Amino acid sequence: MAQERGLDLVEVSPTARPPVCRIMDYGKFKYEQSKRDRIARKKQHVVQLKEVKLRPKIETHDYQTKLQHARAFLEEKNKVKFTVTFRGREMAHPEIGQRLLVKVLGDLADLASAESHPRAEGRMLTVTLLPKPGGKPPVKGGTGTGAAAG
Length: 150
Fold this sequence. Notes:
Elements (H helix, E strand, L loop, with lengths): L1 H4 L2 E6 L6 E5 L1 H18 L5 E6 L5 H16 L3 E7 L8 H14 L4 E3 L4 E3 L2 E8 L19
Parallel strand pairs: 3-4
Antiparallel strand pairs: 1-2, 4-7, 5-7, 6-7
């Protein structure tokens, strides 16, 4: 029947009992399938690890700026690694870095959760934050003011 119509006999579902076959143009079928795959790949998001570096004696404005960057990364559904680097005598007071990371966790609790507790790695103290599931990422390109022309 397929040869009479100038088409191909394609096995659609080989695992089904009985196996399902259709008479169709195989080239067109492969093209449409690759098109669907391309669209699906375009919609998926690859999670990246972004790093935000802090110092124990960070000033308030600098801290707020770093927090805004981290917030933007988390809204894009990326992981964020916070690193507090100690220099010289700052190593004598690691609790300052601990308090700083706990403050970060508190300030970003609405968007993220900690992958693990803050841990020391040599002269650095690190914690990785994961974006909380759910919620849509903000639409890019919007003004955010809500003002309409008119």
